[in-house]
Write a structure and sequence with these properties.
about 260 residues; alpha/beta; Rossmann fold; 6-stranded mixed sheet; 9 helices; about 30% helix; about 30% strand
Length: about 260
């Protein structure tokens, strides 16, 4: 199966500093990939480049095998949803209206909402368990509730690729577990999911993990392979080892500062 989205040799500078230095990454339909790395490694920059919001100096992003600039902007928005770490929408905007903005790439600028649009929005609210918040203004929500509204807006885009920047950062444990169940359901429908996750324990949810360090993918593979690699030790300055939990493949990771 060919990649639905792929970065080839991305070089990108921000503030006069090279953030991405020949980055390669690819996702196929139904993939789930956790992107990890130290602070300022360029993880959010890579997501924005994949979404077409930043233009690389060299290299390219391919969507369904075609360079991203060859796609109309609305067509990219129908295929790729970026759920950012923060929401800049108006504080007085109702949750349901915020989620409904995810339908705009699928409609003309003046086209009325259809029953199909309403059904997709309702499904996104239901999946994220925020139906009871739908008429609340965004400004009255907690950080975690607002994070779920952002996720619902991304799901309402009905994308082929879902890019998430720290989706669990403001969520309590129950909502984190629910979030990853939702992402499993989404990728079971064939959506490719790429999530930047700061918590390395939580990042091991995904069957694949990639470590971004010094502008390149320094390690990629199963969570066990990546977390216990020398590349991860160098990137974070820690020693990592997995401790088996019971008789299954699950592990708990222990992190110790390198001497």
């Amino acid at each position: 199966m060919s990649a639905v989205i792929e970065a080839k040799g991305l070089w990108l500078e921000r503030g006069g500093r090279a953030v991405l230095r020949g980055t390669d990454i690819a996702l196929r339909p139904g993939d789930a990939l956790a992107l990890v790395g130290p602070n300022a490694a360029g993880k959010s920059t890579l997501l924005r480049a994949l979404a077409g919001l930043l233009t690389p100096a060299r290299g390219e992003v391919l969507l369904d095998g075609r360079p991203l600039p060859a796609w109309p902007r609305a067509a990219v928005a129908r295929r790729v949803a970026l759920v950012a770490a923060e929401d800049t929408a108006a504080e007085r905007l109702a949750v349901e209206d915020r989620v409904a903005l995810g339908r705009y790439p699928h409609r003309g600028p003046l086209a009325p909402f259809t029953e199909d649009d309403r059904a997709v929005v309702a499904r996104a609210l239901r999946l994220t368990e925020i139906e009871h918040l739908q008429r609340r203004p965004l400004g009255t929500l907690s950080a975690g509730e607002r994070q779920l509204a952002l996720l619902a807006r991304g799901l309402a885009q009905d994308p082929a690729v879902l890019l998430l920047d720290e989706p669990a950062s403001h969520l309590d444990v129950r909502h984190q577990l629910h979030l990853f169940r939702v992402l499993d359901e989404v990728r079971a429908r064939g959506v490719a999911v790429l999530a930047v996750i700061h918590d390395l324990q939580r990042a091991s949810w995904a069957p694949r993990m990639a470590l971004l360090h010094e502008g390149r993918i320094a390690a990629e593979g199963s969570p066990a392979d990546v977390l216990e690699s020398e590349a991860t030790g160098r990137a974070f300055g820690v020693s990592v080892r997995g401790v088996p939990v019971g008789d299954g493949p699950e592990r708990l990771w222990r992190f110790e500062e390198r001497a």
